[in-house]
Amino acid sequence: MNKIIIDKNYEGIRLDKVLASLLPDKTRNNILKLIEDEKILLNDKPFKASTKAKENDTITILDVEAKNLDLKAEDLNLDIVYEDLDVAVINKPKGMVVHPGAGVNEGTLVNGLLYEMDDLSEINGVIRPGIVHRIDKDTTGLLMVAKNDMASLSLTEQLKKHECKRIYYALVYGEFEEERGRINAPISRSKEDRKKMAVDKDGKEAITNFKVLKRYKGYTLLELKLETGRTHQIRCHMEYIGHPLVGDKVYGRRKVIGDLGQFLHAKIIGFKHPRTNEWMEFDSKLPDYFTDFLNTLEEIKE
Questions:
Q1: Which of 16, 136, 138, 248 is catalytic?
Q2: Could you confirm whether 136 is annotated as catalytic?
Q3: For residue 30, what is the domain's CATH number?
């Protein structure tokens, strides 16, 4: 954690411009991303990049990237679904963190990417080479990777404009009456627990579409299509409608099934290739632990 006190020389200047001046090791895109992800706070609260600075404002940086951080390349046997000169698609296993942070510097997807690939975009910072979006540690499935800055800018813009296709499979508690639906509930950082997100009328737009794939006794398998990509969006929205993810210790029930984490898989991802503009779409099968549990549910009689 790093704190900065704004002096009178920056009075009235947009905070994103102030931070660009005070943090020369970060690009403007890095700074905007940190502000959007609420990793930089103004007087202990989230803020907009356009907010004007005031003398004695306190800026807190929660996610400091070490300028000379030495990341190890590790052979993590990554499941590379697709790769060319510009992009790659990785099928991330359960338990793997996407990028270093919070004391985790080894065993991340980034460590594995550094071993597998010579070129990765650094536009999103030294601890996120190639990373344009994330999924949680215990969520499995497909992720896009940018191998150069051109690809990173293109994929980021597609995500921002909701042009990418992202479909998840999730097992939730309870049996849905509806066949399909749309959850439109804004999300922000929880005021009670800063590690969680919560539905908040003053939060950022968050939209999740759901379709029932199969009902089991006490459970439902859903297909979830994201229109937006907020932190913990699916987990937060499922808790909000009273159907938390099976195995989710944070947003779900206190007693969870085993120690596998949430039953959530990023199954399908689609995007326009940054260079050719060709539509590319990839599908991945559910991991074994997921299908094994579904098979167990099949055996439960009414």
A1: 136
A2: yes
A3: 3.10.290.10
